[in-house]
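Render this sequence as a predicted structure.
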Amino acid sequence: MFQVAFYGKGGIGKSTMAANVSYSLASRGRKVMQIGCDPKHDSTRLLLNGRAQGTVLDYVRSVPVLQRKLEDVIETGAGGVICAEAGGPEPGIGCAGRGILTTFDTLKKLGADSLDVDIKIYDVLGDVVCGGFAVPLRGEYADAVVLVTSGEFMSMYAANNIMKGLANFDTGKPRLLGMILNSRGVEDEEASVRRFAEATGVPVIANIPRDYAFRDAEAAGITVRELRPDSEISKRVDEIADAIADAAEGKAPLYYPHPLDDLQLSDLAAGREIRSPSGETDARIPCATCSKRRKSIRETKIMNSCAAFGAMAAFMRLTDYTVILHGPRSCMYLMDMSHGTVSLRLHRRGIYATDPTHNLRCTMMDDTVSIFGGVKHLEDTLYKTLDEGCRKIAVVTTCMPGIIGDDSERVVKRALEDYPDAEIRFIPADGDMTGSYSEGMTMATVEISKMIDTSVAPEPGYVNLIGHSFFDLQWEKGSKELNRMLSVFGLKVNCRFLDECTSEDMRMFCRAPIDILVSGDATNHVNSKIIADRTGREPFPAPLPVGIREHAKWMRMMGERLGMQEAAEAEIASAEADYRRFLEEHSRRFRGKKVILLNRKNDWIIDLLLDLGADIVRIGVFPGVRQYFSEVTTVHQDRVDEEYSLEKLEKDMDALRPDILISDLAYPVRGGCKLARIKRIGAGYKGPMMYAEYLENIMRIPPTEGWKGAVQ
């Protein structure tokens, strides 16, 4: 595939030229795709009968990641040209250049690179060659660049800037195909452009005269090439198409431009003979002014729970990986502090058998990178880490490199070439610009799933656990109970995805023939889908059970799966007998007690309270944002108030006078009512029994502590 970027000043006619050239190429049997890279998203209009196409950025804003499809963001236009539009943010808000990065990344992830295309044309705004709008200049996108200009000075000034922009993306070979003179009818226009072309060493490949045919075609919503195929204008368009086709086949030369310096531009503007350059102006050499630094007056805003945090947290669960956070130190501090506090807390509770691992580094970006780029920061940090012997590295980007358009992937690719024995994973999370913590976790999980060796043969006796959080399982009693449940069938855990383990554990994932979800929450379903896409196998149909009824159902399902029904029935009988003894011993404390249960639709806690003889007077669920797969069902649905609120709770507290309020929210109870928190209880039937003992202890505590009564 040959890729061409059309650049030029806004309003110079790039979109008109690009659409006409695309149609010309397509009419000659070429398979063409055109991508509009301008916020006004009108590049493909003439290929779509004058109709504006929906943009990729609008699509990204409105459609969740896992529901996106390539066919939703592309359309087939005149001549079979495949059309796409990037779009942009609202005027005055956000960074339109960043939108180009997001568009290209989205199209790539959705499979646009696999389309059957001979030539891909990018139509790009070129007034300001910032990091985002300069993306099509990169080697992986533009094999050739075409400049659209007129004889107006600002148009040639913009073209000169684009030539300078090529310096930052030098691929070691010339890539400028030439200029198109799109005439505006100004005085001495052709002569001015010829002087500019001669001074820069770039040929004029076509001269397009002013012609009312363009106005007629615009009114009809089609290209001139389609409206009047035999006109002189169409012949000129075909010349451009021929030049591109020849370049694609290596028959036409490409050029290194020699952009004009300030003095030469003054000569051009004044109509004088353009003097010799004052210094080296080859487009491969960055201009001297790019080395000047100035400070930003804007403070960096920090956003918690962004996609970068989620991606970082996922890779920090791999104990043999080093994570490089490409961003400012403030991001690293907040993320590491949060992650480290959780790790240390779990370690103190005996959840982690070893010391928590903190192998996190940061590129320490500062405010100057928003002007000058942060690639050097990443290069220095990544190569230093490699030189120290680290060979398993995850590079995670925050907001800042995403906004300024850092080509971080290029740095990673070059490092892999220099260190072929290294394993470097790149996760362009781009902080909150990509989304929330969970979306970053998903991105990282997809990358981690690539470690799975699908050729590993399954071995009987192993299972994998799939969970976003293993808090429920790894506390001492919960872990023992889980192991006991699995031992009924002679099973043991092969890999905990994602928990603290090594990349080798991930590689050997397929050794276990059965994958079990830790719980049925949204993130675990997403993770299981990612694994299913990688391995081609579906998880066990039920997550780990909680409560006596789920325990019995799960045991029977696993017994049938393994052909061990007798072992399953023996475990069920033993568990039910144990549970009955527990109820006989503890139900006297709960019988007749009025309970309000908030914010949970988990059957185990409802079943437990009913079995103990409690009177559940209200089950309330506070409405909230519902995520993909997050809907939790219950067999007690008729008892649940889905639209509960604090106002309703206030009334119920006075009218129902409960003995205990069970909630995951702190609430100031009164009138002798006790407050109990909902806890993580692990898998199996014994966790709920231990939770009942916790509730029993809560109810033993007097409403007013003795010392408070003495003070009163």
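Summary. The two ends are 84 Å apart (CA to CA). Residues 70 and 112 are 7 Å apart (CA to CA).
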